[in-house]
Amino acid sequence: MKSSHLGYPRIGANRQWKKALEQFWAGKLPEDEFVREVTAIRLDNLKVQQDKGIELIPVGDFSLYDHVLDTAVMFGIVPKRFAYEGGPVPLATYFAMARGNKEAAACEMTKWFNTNYHYIVPELNDTVPVLTENRPLAAYREARQQLGIEGKPVILGPLTFVKLSKGYGSTPVAEVVATFIPLYAQLLQELESEGVQWVQVDEPILSTTVTAGDVELLNKVYTELKQAAPKLSLLLQTYFDAVDYYEQVIALPVQGIGLDFLHDRGRNLKQLQKHGFPQDKVLAAGLIDGRNIWRADLDEAIRLAGRLAAFVPADRLIVQPSSSLLHVPVSTRSETDLDPVLKDALAFAEEKLEELAVLKQALENGPEAVSGQLASSREARRQLNASPERNRTAIQQAIAQITKQKFGRALPFADRRPLQQAQWQLPLLPTTTIGSFPQTAEVRQARQKWRKGEWSESQYSEFIEAQIRTWIELQEQLGIDVLVHGEFERTDMVEFFGEKLAGFAFTRNGWVQSYGSRCVKPPVIYGDVAFTAPMTVTESVFAQSLTKKPVKGMLTGPVTILNWSFVRDDLSREQVAYQIALALRAEVEALEQAGIEMIQVDEPAVREGLPLKQQDKEAYIQWAVDAFRLSTSTVKDTTQIHTHMCYCEFHDMIGAISDMDADVISIETSRSHGELIHSFEETVYGKGIGLGVYDIHSPRVPAVEEMVSMIDRSLRVLDPSLFWINPDCGLKTRGMDETVKSLRNMVQAAEAVRAKLQ
User: Could you read off the pLDDT of 262-284 as tens digits, one per residue?
Assistant: First the structure.
């Protein structure tokens, strides 16, 4: 039996990776020093895995930005606008593809399956792929030479890579994949020549709803790859859900199959019990949760492994996490502020590797060999489940009494709309922003002083009020129609609310990568969620007192708080979402009572929580919509509810977006505007809507004409009387100068289009 895992957090125990990246981008770290720093981080990560006794250590999973982008540049998939001339892709070009530059817009970025990690979408177009450099080979050599590790190179499989890409239009997927096969073959041949034993080929696309044709294509692909490198052992790895066409998948011409036995809804196990497992293959079994932070139920993992043992002997079994550990923080060692009962129930990446070692020992030598570790794990879980925070009777009773009648507003949108028009008297194509304004170094320093006790509550409040006053004045000068207070008091749109609700806890160093150098510290939902006191009223009311224009109250929605948190594993996600929704409803009502009657309840993460299987999506969408409506349904007819959602893949969710019954929705779409416009050509949308007219993930300031073109395209398929003008997303990560310039251009673009329509 072997122990392995699928990938490790890149960021370092203290986010050294993030700091090095941002210093390099800012021009404060020369390229050679930057390369030395990230190499040291990569080797430190490998040393940790080596010290934990992992036998098949992944190499090539480390990235300077994103592993899908790494695959694209390895195959020379660089859009022409970046003026790439061949050979290994320079760092400047690599980062320009991810972030944009003055000459070229960044590539599209979207969610990695149903996680909060973002990948850069490859643009295939007319690019002829070529192997520019064998990155997995370099990673393997480095690990062997520096640490004596015989690593397991990790590569993104050809079918998944192509299906996650764009730009090949109506060309059949099989034809596109075929252009990459010689490159994968060359890559694998070079690994084989180097003496590599196992290569992990990730094909997570198999965990989505695929076709028989997809699986047949994979059979052809891996037949060719096996012929190209016959001595190499390929581990075809899936994760995040069960595989369809199980019998065909396990028959693919590879030496090992990796299956997720934790997020598969029991389907992989049922298929294995029904159809067995090939005697000539290794099973890499995902038995430790790679996506959540709770200590494993090792007793259950042992029982599950016992069921597998009826079909797969120990010498053909690899025990591993269910997915890459990229999705969890690095270590619990620095979490000295947490309640001991809660901390003892947590397992981050390092601890999950330790759990793997315990599980392997229990399976090889019997549970009695690790009885102490099993008892400790058992007791930690028991104490948390018995805690008062998980047994709030009033909350549990309120959830039990929810009925469908509580999921709707008094009047339908068609009847609310004229009442709101009379109330607000907004111009055609009203302009607004999504909520946050730049969190400057000064803002961050002030927050740190307050948190450390160096500033009093009154000092910090005065500072926040000064920031709000500055940006209310700026928004009025720019001519924006509906204002926001800027969210200067908030570190993170989920953390802020979690800190003020019961049932949440916060780590000191529980960072995970979201995109690029952007790391987030997800809250931990460990108990029953409850409203305790108003959370946003003070700042919203102060901002409204400074202007006669409407100021939106800004909240994060229940499903986003759920999807961007680490969620307790003893309740269904639906039940937790309803708990959050009831708490937020109390905040919505408090804002309305204080005179804030435009309220934005953001749900940027609804799409990413969508199950990967088509058969499971409808149920999720229904309760996600219900949770949003539960939080917003008690307001007056004239109170205007806004929401915001991220990313472009909404063609299969437009009906659900309408069902949320928000008066206005804004959608992040500037990197993929055309795709979303096509969706609205096919489906009529009859509520207020704003399609982001510029990309806030790039420092580039778009021209007025560029935004006018985006607006004009949108108005071909959307009603001008319902259309709003806004940026793609919040502006927290942008600089002040670029923000003001971009917003000024946005207002001018709105005025130009207004003039054409009136």
Answer: 999 999 999 999 999 999 999 99
